[in-house]
């Protein structure tokens, strides 16, 4: 969609008004895009997510699950959608998969309080933890794009095929593309296995998903160190 078309959906009077006026339109209709730069900070974005009804998931949520971690993180982890624990707490990756994710990050000395920001493609839990539909992903995607703008990470880790498809549009299976560096909007992205997949495949043998994840997270740490050293 061209920027002219996008802006025309709001009308000239709205464009001359404050950002708040534009944001008032956002929850009403998923066909109305969210212009980039609408939110001043993550608190404002989170407040709006909890009022959002751009898709039907807003009707069944307990909490919108926006994100956690450092708002200045060099690394962002993007998952699929909240589960029951996340819906109840309003925080992403807090169940068993989240605990495993923490261990994976800690294994290469990455800290969610300083180095990592964690969020999902969708901010509301799909019923019965089903995969979000394309329509639900597209309705929520502008919030994810604003999160990326606000945090401004150098590296984005996409956990699972839904996260990959939701952000960069690649529809290949995760087993084919995991561990591969991709460039998206000037940022480095790497698809990795979702921690829940690793919980279902606990083997640590060479070539197993857990073994492959260990290779991938070491590559992420090495790339992060390379970026930091190049900035010195």
TrEMBL record:
<keyword id="KW-0411">Iron-sulfur</keyword>
<keyword id="KW-0408">Iron</keyword>
<dbReference type="InterPro" id="IPR005273">
    <property type="entry name" value="Ura-DNA_glyco_family4"/>
</dbReference>
<feature type="domain" description="Uracil-DNA glycosylase-like">
    <location>
        <begin position="66"/>
        <end position="218"/>
    </location>
</feature>
<dbReference type="GO" id="GO:0046872">
    <property type="term" value="F:metal ion binding"/>
</dbReference>
<dbReference type="InterPro" id="IPR005122">
    <property type="entry name" value="Uracil-DNA_glycosylase-like"/>
</dbReference>
<dbReference type="GO" id="GO:0006281">
    <property type="term" value="P:DNA repair"/>
</dbReference>
<keyword id="KW-0004">4Fe-4S</keyword>
<keyword id="KW-0234">DNA repair</keyword>
<keyword id="KW-0227">DNA damage</keyword>
<dbReference type="GO" id="GO:0051539">
    <property type="term" value="F:4 iron, 4 sulfur cluster binding"/>
</dbReference>
<keyword id="KW-0378">Hydrolase</keyword>
<dbReference type="InterPro" id="IPR051536">
    <property type="entry name" value="UDG_Type-4/5"/>
</dbReference>
<comment type="similarity">
    <text>Belongs to the uracil-DNA glycosylase (UDG) superfamily. Type 4 (UDGa) family.</text>
</comment>
<dbReference type="Pfam" id="PF03167">
    <property type="entry name" value="UDG"/>
</dbReference>
<dbReference type="InterPro" id="IPR036895">
    <property type="entry name" value="Uracil-DNA_glycosylase-like_sf"/>
</dbReference>
<keyword id="KW-0479">Metal-binding</keyword>
<dbReference type="GO" id="GO:0004844">
    <property type="term" value="F:uracil DNA N-glycosylase activity"/>
</dbReference>
<protein>
    <recommendedName>
        <fullName>Type-4 uracil-DNA glycosylase</fullName>
        <ecNumber>3.2.2.27</ecNumber>
    </recommendedName>
</protein>
């Amino acid at each position: 969609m061209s920027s002219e078309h996008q802006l025309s959906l709001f009308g000239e009077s709205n464009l001359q008004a404050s950002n708040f006026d534009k944001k008032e339109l956002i929850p009403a209709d998923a066909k109305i895009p969210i212009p980039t730069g609408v939110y001043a900070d993550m608190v404002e974005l989170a407040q709006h997510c909890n009022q959002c009804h751009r898709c039907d998931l807003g009707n069944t949520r307990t909490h919108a699950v926006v994100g956690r971690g450092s708002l200045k993180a060099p690394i962002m982890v993007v998952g699929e959608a909240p589960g029951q624990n996340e819906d109840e707490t309003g925080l992403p990756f807090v169940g068993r998969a989240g605990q495993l994710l923490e261990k994976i990050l800690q294994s290469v000395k990455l800290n969610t309080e300083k180095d990592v920001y964690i969020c999902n493609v969708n901010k509301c839990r799909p019923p019965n933890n089903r995969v979000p539909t394309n329509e639900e992903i597209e309705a929520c995607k502008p919030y994810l794009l604003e999160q990326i703008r606000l945090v401004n990470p150098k590296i984005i880790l996409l956990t699972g095929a839904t996260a990959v498809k939701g952000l960069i549009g690649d529809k290949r299976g995760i087993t084919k593309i995991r561990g591969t560096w991709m460039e998206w909007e000037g940022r480095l992205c790497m698809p990795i296995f979702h921690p829940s997949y690793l919980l279902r495949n606990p083997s640590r043998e060479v070539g197993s998903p857990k073994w492959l994840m260990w290779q991938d997270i070491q590559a992420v740490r090495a790339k992060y160190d390379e970026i930091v050293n190049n900035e010195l």
